[in-house]
């Protein structure tokens, strides 16, 4: 299987090159040259598979065995998920007769990003080790320097994914004093020699600007081989397709109904988690429409209402509130906005202005809509369309897709927006009715599932993806439940792993300002030398 950029069907890359590159040089995202279909007997052959078994099967459809053999793939997957606390890796819990939550937060940092980042770290290590082993002794070994900025959540999952990996150093910038105490503790208590936390005097945007400058600096980039682990990395999407299969089989085992329809609702920010479900569906997993649940940062919900993908909601200025966007979230008007226009919500991991993975879905929509004699022609046409649409988003802040494209998008998805108030109500509702404590991101999904999705059919089962443990977002959970006499945060929510965390030893480098030269000095000083010995086993 080869991969190419959404903005042009030009050069084809191997899986390894795709994973190490992250973003394509033309600004596009890598996608597989075709979506593999499932083996004819998948329904029976895979039905009792564990998470690891399913990972091996699904991943090997996208990774050619001459790149990674099935045995090596199994070893990588086993190692990646051995860090999870739950035997089933991503267990499914039943909340009501028709509603389930798929808990994705049993990894080392208690958030769903672990599912992908635990694997990504091992893939990096595997590829670099293999490259270095085939090198002559006098050649310089290859290494990777991962640099990223975080407002809290992604940083810790990336650090736990890359800690202690040979030939990889990781530098995570966070705005000093502006991440939650538990998130700061999660990041800075990892004391492996290849992990570096930079507490930068400034805002999250300042940190992000510094990272962008570093990636734009060709010389620095070439010397240190900068790598990114953000959600556009193809391996992350691929790793996430697995739990759609696992949960599908789980329901199939429990519900004998031949007319059964399984519907997923996904709390969404950068569109990575739900995109994995779309790939599963296109591969042939028989599931219903996918529900996109957003908070007040609702660029995706607005797209599914109007067909316009636009950073700023221009419809609200010209039409009465509630006409193009329904009542859900109508009370969000007075939310705090930062300079870029991102609104601060109770579900901060979904506070985005644009959704970086949405371009991948747009490519498939453009491809399905392209008029071409053959596949090759339609692919080239889709690449041109995406380059055009993304160019418009960049220059005008918006693009309007043709009606047929919007209709196609509505065949596979629906989208709704959820306010902070509705998020809190939902946390309370499931605590009172099902004794289940959802984190605010999961609650955004649960709200959409309960109130909007067509759950009145007796044949429908809804699976809401649960993206974080409630202890990570104590403020929202406590606000929602403090009125309940039977609720006790320490007893009901706080996992033992968090209890001593605030007191653990920390390692953090203070950076006196959001200055790219200061950050470069830190990287130059601490980037670990690559492992040089041929055959070295680390
Ligand atoms: C990253 C994240 C999301 C959003 O996932 P996307 O793949 O960006 O759509 C939702 N919830 C939590 C807790 C997250 O960390």
Automatic annotation (TrEMBL):
Domain Threonine synthase N-terminal: 2-81
Location of the Tryptophan synthase beta chain-like PALP domain: 100-333
Pathway annotation: Amino-acid biosynthesis; L-threonine biosynthesis; L-threonine from L-aspartate: step 5/5
Positions of region (Disordered): 315-341
Residues modified as N6-(pyridoxal phosphate)lysine: 113
Pfam family, one: THR4_C
Coiled coil segments of this chain: none
Cofactor: pyridoxal 5'-phosphate
Biological process (GO), any one: threonine biosynthetic process
EC number assigned by the record: 4.2.3.1
Top EC class for this record: lyase
Keywords: Amino-acid biosynthesis, Lyase, Pyridoxal phosphate, Threonine biosynthesis
Source taxon at top rank: Eukaryota
GO molecular function, one term: threonine synthase activity
Family: Belongs to the threonine synthase family.
Protein name in the entry: threonine synthase
Origin species: Ganoderma sinense ZZ0214-1
